[in-house]
Amino acid sequence: MILPPRVAPLAASKLEELPGDETYDAVLASLGFERRCTEIPAALGEVVKRAAVPFFDRREGSYRENERFFRKSGWELAAIENESQVPAWISQWLRERGPEEGVRRLAVDVSSMKRTRIAAVVEAVIEHLTACELEIDFLYTPSSFRAPAENNDPPVLSVRPVSGYFAGWWHDLDAPLHAIIGLGYELERASSAIDQLEPEILEAFIPVGTDGAYLTALERANQELFDTQDLKHVTHYEVADPFTCFRTLESRVHGIAERHRVALVPLGPKIFATCVLIVAALHPGAVQVIRVSAEEREHAVDYRSDGSVYGLRLVLGPPRAGSEMGPANPGSMAVADVEDDR
What we know:
Layout: E1 6-9, E2 13-14, E3 26-31, H1 39-44, E4 49-54, H2 63-72, E5 76-77, H3 86-95, E6 105-109, H4 115-127, E7 134-140, E8 158-161, E9 177-182, H5 189-197, E10 201-208, H6 212-221, H7 223-227, E11 231-238, H8 242-256, E12 261-266, H9 270-282, E13 287-293, E14 308-316, E15 326-327, E16 334-335
Parallel strand pairs: 1-16, 3-4, 3-6, 4-5, 6-7, 9-10, 9-12, 10-11, 12-13
Antiparallel strand pairs: 1-14, 2-14, 7-14, 8-13, 15-16
Helix pairs in contact: 3-4, 4-9, 8-9
């Protein structure tokens, strides 16, 4: 019997504490303009099967240096020509590296991934039903805080579903729209999404990290939203505890999906986007995930890691002997309320 996927916590660690090649059979990363692109891959060491998907725009900042690192270290670079080919390449790469091929532990570095690529990974692994156990660790290293440039945010050009899989195929189009927006410190991103969606019910998830300056910048960028009477509920989540964030978000969506159309807008840290996409995958067709983007006008900011690593584990197939994983909600994805063993 093929069991539904389960989600488990990963213990927070430092880059130098990552288990590396003795733990993972394969690693998937991105080749982009941030120095962050190579910091988790370098810490993981010489995993046998490892690949990076290059960016096709904004090849600036640390891009060339990152490319040299991946080539010198023996990484496979995805041989594709444009962004539209990325989802199919990711799906094929994962299919060719399943449990049947000896890959039982897979690490995915989401730190510098575009949200469309995280969506492609989540879709591919959720659709990869397997009778063998496969563990996927979504790893995230936050960037060191850098204050946003004043009045320098590019205009929003796109507010639309992150992919067709996460488009939300609602049965009752007359049901009220409930939007949950994760906030970041970019100006007008949240307000643009709200103007486009026009939700009847609006709530926000706000990241809390180790640097208070980030929260100050976020509050400044979203002050107009905080002042409105339309914001019904605010949840603060710890960036260092994505598992609790996932459980809180899943509980919220599970409680409202039957009587509302649900739209999730994952602004803010990429680990929140990962939580959102996994939650949406639990409710196929009932939840829409919205990407807010300036497209080709997005700024290329060369962030570096702050040295910490957080993550979530997704488990496919039967649990290991002695595992304490069990269901969280009837009919929903199982949630393992256990500590990671690393």
